[in-house]
Amino acid sequence: MKLAIISPGFVPVPSVKGGAVEQLIEYIVTANELYHKYDIDLYTVDDPLLNNFTYKYTNLIKVPSKSERNLYSRIFVKSKKIMGKLLNLSNDYDYTSTVFLKYYKKNYYDAVLVENNMDIYGNLLSVVTKEKLYFHLHNDVDCGDPSKTKEKTEKIINTSKNILVVSQFLKKKLCKMGATNVTVVPNAIISKNFKQNSLEKVTEIRSKYGIRKNDFVFTFVGRLAPEKGIDKLISAIKRLNYVPNIKCLIVGKNFFEDKSGNRYISYLKNISQDVQSKLIFTGYIPNNKLNDIYSISNCVVIPSQWEEVFGVVALEAMEMKCPVIASYSGGLPEVLSKKCALFVKRDKNS
User: Which of 142, 137, 114, 115 is nearest to 127 (CA)?
Assistant: First the structure.
């Protein structure tokens, strides 16, 4: 069977630059190398690191790199001022869905799996004829604003062969919108990537990050975005400022070094001023190295402020035997066992 997998279009697949959805797509491709159920064309944004990957049964179709997309976006913005409403693209996200369509092989596939990008799916409808269309949804359909996505979601419900979702929470939501073609496919991790480290290795890693033996480490893994709730975690750390041996490990970007002017990042900088000594930034950590982080963590915190429809970090933490503090959010109660997790309501006291 000829299968097209259309990645979301923000970072490359394989997941050389991170991304939860991108990592899961990589799992599909890797498994297909073992079982060869499909001949796959994987549509992904280009990156020089992708040259290190070759597959027997998957062909990487690489769309222009980030720098080229940014050049296009700058040209587009200037053009739009002149052309006005004659152009219907509004930002880089719209460009992504358009450029993927340009590379798409028409009338070639038996099935097309669109990963979590409703705009790409909508554009494909204009060229797809015989192909069976599938949509893989990884996040909440309204993202806090139903007016933005209701029409797009209904279009997917009415035109797709099947919608794959990651949790019962998400399936129930789609069914309330009239969907009958929904299948739950829970997310997964590769267990062998999450093995316990030796005591000697743990001591070595703690030393690398300046963490003492008796320090209690809370760990956050995720994007620095309002919906991920890292501000709630930092506010909680501030309340524990009187406790000398607490550290907060932040896996990802160091927001103190961010010069983007992003309001949320600026807010994080502001509320963190008096607890900087408790914050430790790791930078980007590849998925197959995350066990090093979990092994030095005493507690993983998932302070999501939106409906977290699954939460791969929750699976990873449990595999590494880390207790979890999580928001009572979306599909997290499906994933986390109450034997290892405390749930916090998302209210004014969260």
Answer: 114
